Structures are given as structure tokens and as C-alpha cells.
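Note to self: keep these together.
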Amino acid sequence: MRYVILGQERDRTTPAFTRPRRRRTMTPHRASILLILVASICSSAEYAEEVLFRPLGNISPVSDPGIARHFQFTARLSVPTDDGDAGTNEALAFPSDFPRSVSRIVSDLGIEEFALTFSRGQWVDSWGPQIRNQVFPTGMSLFGSFFRRRGADPEARWTILKESLSALFCASVNGINDANTVKEDVSEDFVERAFLSTLSTTETREPVSYRYAHLPHEAVCTENLRPWLHLLPCRDVSGIASWIDPVEVFSGPFYSMSIRARWVYDESSKHLEFVQTLTAVSTSSAWSADTVPEACAASRVSSVLVEGNLDASKSERAASLKEYGSATLVEMTPSPSQSWVVGNDRKTLQAYGDDPPGWLRHRLHMNRLDMRSIDPDVRALGFRVAYSIASDTDRESEPSFSIRRFDYGQFSSRRGLQTQLRNEHRTITQRALYREYLPWFVRRKYSTFRISIGKTMLNESEMWGGEHGIDSGIVRIVVPSRDGDRSPSQLSVSLDVPPQTTVTITFEFEAAFLHFEDFAPDSNRGFDLPSGFVSLIVPDNARANEDDVCSSIVSPLLRDATTTLWPNAILFTNPVAIMLPVLDFSMPFNVITLSCTALAFLFGSVLGAVTRRRKENERTVVKSPKS
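Structure:
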């Protein structure tokens, strides 16, 4: 048998070395693999895992102080700035310790920052101050910031982001629609006035498009926690994440978890940062584990932080009370690797007068256990933390700033919402920016809008700005709702809250009549309103001192835990459910039942009458011959 190669006739017996070899070309698949290998060498990722144990106030009047566990896992990828624009690096490779699903979402959709949060329960003020980026509104919330580029539709990218996260976390993220989404296309000179700018933690360098949605009634369960654990490099097999027990987490009165991905810039490079946080509150004053797990192999930092004083003797307790004013005692096994006091002692506070600021009086005893330097024999002994708070302690349990919201006139014609902002500081006037958005069916009556600072009611010119425009007043942004596209209404209020003063924001609303398809299956329960949020702005004179106090803190989690005031700190309101005019959903069932009953009675009667006459005629015909 013969064949032709290059126009020459040859036999199959031709030696192999005389046959012309096939020339291999660089296919797109091979080129992408080579590009990923080269980029992975040039890029580097850092991973850190931390957990903080904090004592809380009494969970109930008859219970002991509880414990809050704050987990934080941070992965940061450094990328040279000459690789292109952030969020569009197609050649960027991500190491194995960085979640590939998250990196693809950020790079393919051109996202500057996005955050997904799940929360159940409500943080009680008596537990103490909240930690920044650890407590979120009840239910599920999603925030996205997209780069505005030609040919890229932010609405289409927002839809893809919802669908991707819904499949990734087994959650109803795709239940977000236009009726519960706030949209803003922000230019460079409008970022500070944007409604959603305070939810972003990234310094915006170009025009962006913000999207934010909140589902207050979204249920949170282990189906959401398991995908969250799968994003960790070591999952829950090793490292600090092995202490996360789903049954224990969901048995507590409060639970919150989140993911946040954002671009961080510096002078020479940019970083893609991915942070996972989880907060779990337990009602017991002690927590223990059978073993101390080994640190995750991918982590460069693995720390266990415990708040409290290890001094257990009465003399040391008295010295602690005299020097620091704190008597929160803790028993910790194994012994910490490092212990120190965060804050200032009483001698330092004397330089600020008899009444120093609250942020300066905030000081804590902190203990750190390095998970990477524990002996194997010590690991087998287990881990235990137990708190006991002395009765004579002057440690402040109430937060420095609190926010509450409730409704009134539920079953009357004058229904409304009231929000209270309380500043507990003794000397500092707190700058606050309160923002909220309501669904289209809650129609706010702006003629009934009232703001009172303490016992003083503000007039209309002070609220709305009068002749100088809305920028000179307290109310900064007002966007009414529209029934046509069912977009939510927006309200932004910027004001100064004096020390030891409560600011009250009140307005009435009108409930709209909904179509029967707009009601939820549990319509008689009511409709949950999205949580409002307040952004706290630290005064310039206090910000420098606070940076001096916390300049020696290296851990991001510890830095957030030891500050009572922080620039753009976010606090959320409690959930509120309102009742709307509900239809009688049993009426269709009653109509169908009555119609079917009447039809069955009529059909049965007619059918019985017809068949009965026929049978009687047949009997008469059969009996007549015999007679």
C-alpha cells in the first residue's frame, strides 16, 4: 500500500527517521497555560487567619456574661501596576491559596469592590461596642462597585454578580430585583455626596457605579456556611477555621458572616484583597476545644487574640483597677505568647483634664497566642477561655454611639417611622451621616418630616436649606419613589450629634395597595423594611490622637476591636416589620369551593333525575305483558 507525502510516493516501509515530522504550533490553550505559569511566578499572595475572644455583657438578667468570637481570614494578592487596569487583568494568575471563583468574578466583571453579608439576630447594646466590619444588618445584603467603562453595562454586570453569588453560596441572591435595589452612577466630583459611598472601603480613582440591596427576611443556615468555609485555603480541616462548629454557631443568639473583595492601591503596586469574617455569640462565659489545631500551611499569620486580664489575685486585681480601671479577668489555657495593654493608663489621662474623651479612655488587656509556635505536647492539652467580670469594674458596657428605629401607629391612620441616634460621649460632638432607603410601597410624607436634637425641634430652613439650597441644610439627598419602575426612595441626613444627646428623625408614611402577586407566602407576618445605616466621622482633632494610640497594632482585627471611633464606621438599625393592607387570600378558595359545590349539586340532581325516569319506564314496559 502506498501513500503520498509532500508530493512524493513512498511505502509504509520507509524508515521513521526519513519521514517529515509534524510541526507543532502554539495553540491558544497552551499559550494560556504558559501565561498562567509565568504570571503565577510574578504574583505573590499573603494569607492571615485570626480569631478574637471578647467578653460581653449579660445575655439576659439571669445569665452569665457571654463570649463573642470574631473570626477573620485575609488573603491579599500583590500585582504590579503595569499589568493593566484593575479588574481587567486577563493574564493575572491567582495562587492556590486565593479563591479562584472570587478572582474570576472580580476580573471578568470589572468590579472595584463587592461585599456579601449574612446575619441572623440583633446585636444588643448591652453587649458592648461593635467591631467594624463584623456586625451587619439582619438578613442578606449585597454591595457592588463597578468601574465605568465603554461598552460595559453596569446593570448586566450586576445581574451576573447576583447569579454567580447565588450559585456559589446556595442563597437567594437572585431574588434581588429593582424594587429593593439602590442604583447610583457616580462621577469623580460626586463621590462624597453619593448615597452609597460610605459602604465602600476603597479610595475611588475613577467614576464608578454603585449597587446595593438588602433582603431582611432572608434565612441563613448551614447551606450558606459550608460554601463560605470552602473558600478558605485549608477549609475547616486545619487552622483556626477548624474551631467553627455550625451547630454551635447557629445555636447562639447572634450570628454574622461576610465576604469582601476589593482593590487596594499604593505607590508601587496594587493588591486584590479578599476578607472573610464570621462573628458568633455564645451564652456561656467559657469556651473550650479538645485540641489546639495546627496553623494552616498557607498562612503567614495565625493568631488567637483574647481580651481580658490574666491577673487573678486580689492584690493584682486592685492594682489593675487603680491603674487601668479594668477588672475583666480571664483564664486562658495554654498560656499566651504575648500580653500587653492597649490604651492609656490613668497618669496619661490626667494630661487631658478631669473628663478625657471616650475614645481615649478605651483601653483593653490583650493576650496573643501564636498558633505556629506551639509545642505538640501543648496542643494535645486543648484550649480553654473562661471570663469573670468583677462587680466593681468601671468598664463601659454601653457603646459610644447607638442607633434605633421603630414604627408607630400600626393600626391607625397616622402611621410613621422614628429613628433615634444617641451619642454617649461626654465631650465629643459626633459627626453622623444617616442614610436609609424604603420600598416603593412605603410612601414617605415629606410634609410630616421632623428632626429634633434633644428637646429642640429644627425648622424647615435648617432641615432643607431654605434659599441656599439643599446642600446647606441637614437633609442632603432626597429621592422619592416612583410607582412606574418601582424604585425605592432614598433619604440622606448629615448632622452633628452633641454629647449625651439623642437626635430623633420622624416622618409619617402611607402604605400602598399591592397586587396579590406582590405578597409573600407569609403576608400576615408583615413586610420587613431594609435597615438604615449611619456613618460615623471622627473629628480631625481626635483622629490624630487615635492613630497614635493604635500605631503599634499590627493585626487588622485587633485594630478594629480596640477603637471605639473610626472614620466611616458603619452602624445598622434594627429590623422593622410593618403591616400593609392584606387581601383576603381565602376568598378564591371560598369561591372555588362554592362554585364546585353548586355545580356538583346541579349536575348530580339532573343526572339522577334523568337516569331515574329511564329505569322506571323500563320496569313499566317489562311488567305489562305479564298482566
